[in-house]
Amino acid sequence: MKKTKAVILDYCKAYSEMQDRTLAKKVYSENLHLFKSVEQIRGLIRYYRGHHGEYNRKSVKDKEMIKPLNYNTKKNPEPINTGAKILILDIETAPIRAYVWGVWNENIHMNQIQSDWFILTWAAKWLFDDKVYSAKLKPEEVLNQDDSRIIKGIWTLLNEADIVVAHNGEKFDIPKLNSRFIINDIEPPLPYQVIDTLKHIRRKFAFTHNKLDYVNKILKLDRKSDTGGFELWERCMKGDKSALKEMEDYNVKDVKILEDLYLNIRQWITPHPNVGLFILDQKQSRCACCGSDKLIDTGKLYYTISNAFALQKCESCGSNNRKRLGELKINDKRHLLISSAK
């Protein structure tokens, strides 16, 4: 035991920059008579380097063995120009007006609908840019329920976007916009990927409420503006010019706080669209979430049913990334079994 420990410590000192598993393979190939497997060596290396957790880091006597685990979890990562056009989006719609006989569990027949919904305002911004684009209906357009003028602007932005971020975007903002596009005889914008922050919050967390304003409150981020309730929508429907301006300002604020929320939960979004694909310089690995090249090896592997992949932590946004090429080669997997599907 003392001999194997001494061998591991010597290798750790001599190859302090080498990753845990790579070093374990080197030790194993050069000392076949001392060790049973690469995994046995890797476990010892991780212990002596303090990679088995904070408790073991404290128990390791030779601190110079320890590789620092400076995982950066800061809330505001530096902007990285990945080349990906990421659009933060929010819309406000008019209510549906209908004749009803009750307020609970009502099934509204289409003949009861007096006026359908349409877009009142929209706001959007490119990630990290200060400028917010927005548009609102004029009073006469509200009365005519005509949003054809303002939706052309948001269509242009969507047509340029590679990724669109919206809260409840997959079930509300995007389908609503698509509906108004086809109603106004506008062709589909070019394809883009959607990051629905509401969906990812529901998947990863257990907040009491998943509304944008409540989650931002819990995370101590900027909050929504106070609209005063449904009265603002009621005034907008009457063509009140000042109300429409208030609605647009409210919409713009929502986009800004949505950007804050997205950047705070970005490291939790899995899978995140791979922004590394938009960086032309492929000489080094890039974080899939933010595009940073500040990646550190965790010494841990990500296991699928047929291979294992090295995990890296992004020091910029804090997200976890796995390498695309597996650690196990064909000979390593020769006797590997996989559970049957049925």
- Mean pLDDT across every amino acid position: 88
Structural class: alpha+beta
- How is the CATH topology of the largest domain named? Nucleotidyltransferase, domain 5
CATH architecture of the largest domain: 2-Layer Sandwich
CATH homologous superfamily of the largest domain - what is it? Ribonuclease H-like superfamily/Ribonuclease H
Strand percent estimate: 15-25%
Tell me the helix content.
Answer: 25-40%
CATH class of the largest domain: Alpha Beta
Spatial strand order of the main sheet? 5-4-1-6-7
Q: Give the total of domains.
A: 2
Q: H/E series, N to C?
A: HHHHEEEEEHHEHEHHHHEEE
Runs in which pLDDT lies below 50 for 5 or more consecutive residues are 68-75
Number of strands: 10
Overall 3D geometry? elongated
Number of helices: 11
Strand-helix topology:
Elements: H1 2-14, H2 20-30, H3 38-48, H4 54-59, E1 86-93, E2 97-98, E3 113-115, E4 119-126, E5 133-136, H5 139-143, H6 148-160, E6 163-166, H7 169-183, E7 193-196, H8 197-204, H9 212-218, H10 231-237, H11 241-265, E8 295-303, E9 308-314, E10 320-322
Parallel strand pairs: 1-6, 6-7
Antiparallel strand pairs: 1-4, 2-3, 4-5, 8-9, 9-10
Helix pairs in contact: 1-3, 2-3, 9-11, 10-11
In brief:
Helices cover 35% and strands 15% of the residues.
Which keywords apply here?
five-stranded mixed sheet, Nucleotidyltransferase, domain 5, 11 helices, 342 residues, 15% strand, 10 strands, three-stranded antiparallel sheet, 35% helix, alpha+beta
Structural commentary:
The chain is an alpha+beta fold and 342 residues long. It has two domains: 64 residues, no CATH class; 177 residues, Ribonuclease H-like superfamily/Ribonuclease H (Nucleotidyltransferase, domain 5), CATH 3.30.420.10. 35% of the residues lie in helices and 15% in strands. The chain has eleven helices and ten strands. The strands form three sheets. A five-stranded mixed sheet has the order 5-4-1-6-7, sandwiched between helices. Strands 8-9-10 form a three-stranded antiparallel sheet, with no helix packed on it. Strands 2-3 form a two-stranded antiparallel ribbon. Strand 4 and strand 5 form a beta hairpin. Helix 1 crosses helix 3 and helix 9 packs across helix 11. The longest helix has 25 residues. The chain starts with a helix and ends in a 20-residue tail after the last strand. About 2% of the residues have low confidence.
